[in-house]
Design goal:
mainly alpha; 7 helices
Length: 144
């Protein structure tokens, strides 16, 4: 009678023991990834009106309608007015902008240069620096 050979299969150990190899056991842990969601603030939208879309031509005053400043300067446009505010003394400014009663700069800009928005803003300016800021803001609407 023939004999049967039986083979035994042994399962290999998945983890090596640390005593034989001198290495530490390697363990893998599942890491959970936490997703963060950024909250974004909505961007400000600017309504474009007709004055923003098309640049207006810069208006120059004639010699008869130019602005004569108390210190001797002669102004003929908003650009010249902006430059005049740079070095203007506060006393000269106050001479032409007498509080709420009368503002020569605002009147001239409104009547001669035909810019009512800039004139209204100039009436509120109290110093040459704030008046220059107003003029610079309104010059953005012009094609220079």
């Amino acid at each position: 009678m023939p004999t049967k050979k039986t083979t035994k299969k042994t399962a290999k150990k998945a983890v090596k023991s640390s005593s034989k190899t001198g290495q530490a056991k390697k363990t893998t842990a599942k890491k959970t990834v936490k997703k963060t969601v950024k909250k974004s603030t909505p961007k400000k939208t600017v309504k474009k009106t007709s004055k923003n879309t098309a640049a207006k031509p810069l208006v120059f005053a004639s010699n008869n309608t130019s602005f004569w400043v108390n210190d001797g300067q002669i102004l003929n446009s908003l650009v010249a007015l902006r430059d005049a505010f740079d070095g203007m003394d506060k006393a000269v400014y106050e001479y032409h902008a007498k509080g709420n009663d009368q503002n020569d700069f605002a009147n001239w800009v409104g009547v001669v240069l035909c810019d009512g928005d800039c004139a209204a803003a100039l009436e509120k300016a109290k110093t040459p620096r704030s008046a220059k800021t107003v003029v610079v803001k309104h010059l953005k609407y012009y094609a220079i």
